[in-house]
Specification:
The chain is an all-beta fold. The protein contains no helices and 11 strands. The strands form 2 sheets. Strands 2, 4, 5, 6, 9, 10 and 11 form a 7-stranded mixed β-sheet that branches. It is globular, with a radius of gyration of 13 Å. The mean pLDDT is 95.
């Protein structure tokens, strides 16, 4: 099991940028996938981006964020990040960092979660 703590959320104007961070503690991550998810009010939690902590598999992105969001990692700090650019009102949601030893597009399959951080895009 790993413990995850997100930070970096807040209020931003349309077109603005934010960077989320997820600090990771606990067991070795060598066999883990890391993911960013979001959950808007009344909607299911959906995958935004994910990659294996190690390895060369490319990063997966939801179609709606392709080209505007970039997921990255810092092996020394044991953190993952989500750089979000060109933010639109419709991306307003609670964003969660997730970890699991198996990749799935479904949030129901992921076992370890942070507490979430709110992002509100509004003028």
């Amino acid at each position: 099991q790993v413990q995850l703590v997100e930070s970096g959320g807040g209020l931003v104007q349309p077109g603005g940028s934010l960077r989320l961070s997820c600090a990771i503690s606990g067991r070795s991550l060598s066999s883990y996938y890391m993911g960013w998810f979001r959950q808007a009010p009344g909607k299911e939690r959906e995958l935004v981006s994910a990659f294996p902590w190690t390895g060369i598999t490319s990063t997966s992105y939801a179609d709606s964020v392709m080209g505007r969001f970039v997921m990255s990692r810092d092996f020394v700090k044991r953190e993952v990040y989500l750089q979000m650019n060109g933010l639109l009102v419709e991306v307003t949601a609670v964003y969660f960092c997730g970890a699991d030893q198996t990749f799935s597009n479904s949030s129901a399959a992921w076992h370890d979660w942070g507490q979430g951080t709110q992002i509100t895009v509004s003028s």
